What we know:
It is built from 13 helices and twelve strands. It has helices at residues 2-10, 18-36, 39-42, 50-54, 70-83, 105-119, 130-133, 181-190, 212-219, 242-250, 254-260, 278-281, 331-342, and strands at 59-64, 97-102, 134-137, 140-145, 151-156, 171-175, 197-202, 227-232, 294-299, 306-313, 319-327, 347-352. The termini are far apart.
Amino acid sequence: MDEQLTKLLSIDPTKLKRSEILKLLPVAIAYKDAITTRRHERFTPQDYQLSFFASTKKFIALFAGNRAGKTMCAVCYLCKFIMGTLPNRKTPKWPLHIRVSSVDYATLERVHIPMFREFIDHRKLKGGSWETAVRRTGGVITRVDFADGGWIEFKTHEQSVESYQAVQLDAYLMDEACKNREIWVENRMRLVDRGGFGMHTLSPLTDITWEVEIEESAADEETAPDYDFFRWDSRWNKYLKEEELNRLMRDLTSEEIQMRIMGVAAKMGNRVYWTFKRERNIIKPFAIPATWPRIVLFDCHDTKAHAVDWFAVDTNDDIYHYRAIKKKCQIPELAKTVRALSGNEPIALMLLDPSATKVASNRTI
Length: 365
């Protein structure tokens, strides 16, 4: 085709005979198809996006600032998976079942569906074209069928949990924050039969809740092997004008910059101290006077690792955080570890997170 295409582009069509034009017409059609679809073949990730496309983990999470390219990369990743062109993740031979969900159908029709239409190879689709492959419900596209019987379905985070049940999935993408954690749980359940993978991408413009668990799981030594967590800053996108971003940031609050530019969730459910400064709050270790009272805080969990933190209070009531552990074990073992680490320190107070008594199994810690 390349030689024919070179010939096609180098000649004056007004000088061709009708028979010659008819011979070159299939080449022209194929070329038009190649430049208007299958963009996943021509998409070149930026340097900071390369590791995302190399991921083979069970769960991939991406928190990003606005315009950092998260949704486009996620759609491209899925299209490469569908077409079997991902460098490190193998595509199953059976008909694929893919689910994509976002805030509402307006967002899906404005953002995700046009991207899939542009990125995917239409030869993969039922009937060989987008028009013959799409299914509509109530006037909106809810599914795209593949020629081999596979499909991509589009859902919203507004729909009921029940609507997410009763299918097997090879992959799912949840784009943007979802208030209902049960939707995430249902998506994960759908992966069990086929050994699929899940993707979570969002710009944390609101106080996210359960999504924080994904970031924690990626950092936990026991669950980390199943997770890849990425955070992208809008300023890394070389296609955005630096002067425009700087102008925008001058009008944003520090919290808005964290969310919209840096991809850091708003207060992470009140877990981030916005007055924290590394140069001020991180100090060199020193011998804590024996007379300073100590406080030990427990954050126990029924399924994940327990967290324990030690604090010392000086004569001016300034607080020093000097020790921390994460340990997944039974409570008696945790208590033994805390006693051993505390030694003869003057522990004045031990506090337990009150929500520790409300664990899923109804067992009181």
